[in-house]
């Protein structure tokens, strides 16, 4: 009979006092990163995983102490003490592992992480997700113009799906990164990174249970920037290593049947400095080539008269050539090997996109509307009406769907008028 199914009140008299043992020698109230022993950890994992209350947990401790025949109990005196110890821990998530990434000035820098495949399986336990899971590319058109909505309507999905073995499906991995100060690790500066799946519809993907915390990347503050960048990409390599090892894909249970998938990283959502860290380009806005996606010079970034041929996009092959030929300065990339060069079906320079907070919630979208139409009298009637509508409605309806829908209409109409009228 398992502990989960046991009725400890029937096994032991509730009035019976627990055996008295000395506390584990490693136990203390100061902030620490490890449990006193494996038994202590396993108990707290059991209590946390199955949401056992304090009374039930105390009965487990009493049962163990009575029948273990140990002179010193490895368990806490009671569950309350165990919970206090967990709250004082520098890292309280029991499911996380850690690995040493680098050592600098006699200090160890660890990556705390969960297994990538297990994170994916956790997401797929939600019924709403599996019932609406996209498995193939969809092509939508209106008036001979392509319509892009979900990720599986995009060009990347189409080309990536065509590169996979016949009969397999694409599993699109989206990473979200944001360095922050976290209380979970004792007011430490750490770098959480989350995972979700592009196969999940947008309306469902924004729910909390559609995301998983993949890990905490260490933040190394050092004058040696190459070491900082190398630490960052070593951490990413360790997190995403399961993708590299899955040469034959993976079977996942979707809609009551096993489906053959190949996981691929499609998008990394990050702010501008973090996008530069993923792409390993110079972060300074004063850099000659300050855009992490293209090779347009800084003085030409606002030049709307540039033709398509003038905009040269960064690619893995070209950036790797500069790195291997020691000419990375000419394209403003760091002198560190980029881990994403080794991943299939991704151009890291195009895969990094701004997050919702910076692009929408902080008002950048509204700024784009105002900047695009400063001379309202020269706009077409459609743009004039749309401009006024957005101005009036912005404070009332700030949902992503609303803003992006009207932004698409606006851009489509502005494409048909002379943009140089609005150049500053």
UniProtKB/TrEMBL annotation:
<dbReference type="InterPro" id="IPR041078">
    <property type="entry name" value="Plavaka"/>
</dbReference>
<keyword id="KW-0472">Membrane</keyword>
<keyword id="KW-0812">Transmembrane</keyword>
<dbReference type="Pfam" id="PF18759">
    <property type="entry name" value="Plavaka"/>
</dbReference>
<keyword id="KW-1133">Transmembrane helix</keyword>
<protein>
    <submittedName>
        <fullName>Uncharacterized protein</fullName>
    </submittedName>
</protein>
<feature type="transmembrane region" description="Helical">
    <location>
        <begin position="393"/>
        <end position="411"/>
    </location>
</feature>
């Amino acid at each position: 009979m398992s502990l989960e199914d046991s009725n400890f009140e029937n096994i032991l008299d509730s009035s019976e006092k627990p055996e008295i043992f000395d506390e584990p020698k490693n136990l203390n109230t100061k902030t620490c990163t490890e449990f006193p022993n494996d038994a202590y950890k396993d108990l707290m994992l059991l209590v946390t995983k199955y949401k056992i209350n304090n009374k039930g947990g105390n009965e487990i401790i009493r049962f163990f102490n009575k029948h273990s025949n140990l002179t010193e109990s490895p368990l806490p005196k009671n569950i309350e003490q165990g919970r206090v110890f967990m709250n004082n821990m520098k890292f309280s998530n029991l499911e996380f592992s850690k690995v040493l990434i680098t050592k600098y000035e006699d200090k160890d820098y660890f990556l705390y992480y969960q297994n990538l495949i297990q994170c994916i399986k956790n997401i797929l336990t939600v019924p709403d997700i599996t019932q609406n899971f996209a498995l193939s590319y969809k092509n939508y058109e209106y008036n001979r113009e392509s319509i892009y909505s979900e990720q599986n309507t995009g060009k990347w999905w189409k080309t990536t799906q065509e590169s996979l073995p016949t009969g397999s499906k694409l599993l699109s991995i989206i990473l979200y990164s944001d360095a922050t100060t976290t209380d979970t690790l004792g007011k430490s500066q750490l770098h959480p990174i989350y995972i979700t799946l592009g196969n999940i519809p947008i309306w469902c993907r924004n729910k909390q249970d559609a995301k998983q915390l993949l890990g905490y990347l260490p933040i190394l503050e050092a004058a040696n920037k190459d070491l900082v960048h190398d630490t960052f990409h070593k951490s990413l390599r360790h997190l995403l290593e399961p993708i590299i090892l899955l040469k034959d894909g993976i079977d996942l249970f979707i809609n009551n049947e096993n489906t053959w998938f190949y996981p691929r990283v499609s998008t990394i959502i990050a702010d501008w400095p973090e996008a530069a860290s993923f792409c390993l380009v110079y972060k300074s806005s004063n850099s000659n080539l300050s855009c992490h996606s293209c090779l347009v010079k800084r003085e030409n970034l606002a030049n709307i008269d540039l033709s398509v041929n003038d905009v040269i996009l960064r690619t893995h092959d070209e950036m790797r050539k500069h790195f291997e030929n020691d000419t990375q300065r000419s394209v403003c990339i760091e002198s560190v090997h980029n881990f994403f060069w080794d991943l299939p079906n991704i151009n890291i320079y195009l895969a990094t996109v701004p997050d919702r907070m910076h692009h929408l919630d902080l008002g950048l979208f509204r700024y784009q509307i105002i900047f695009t139409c400063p001379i309202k009298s020269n706009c077409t009637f459609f743009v004039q009406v749309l401009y006024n509508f957005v101005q009036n409605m912005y404070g009332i309806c700030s949902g992503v769907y609303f803003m992006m829908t009207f932004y698409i209409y606006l851009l489509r109409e502005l494409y048909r008028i002379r943009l140089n009228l609005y150049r500053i």
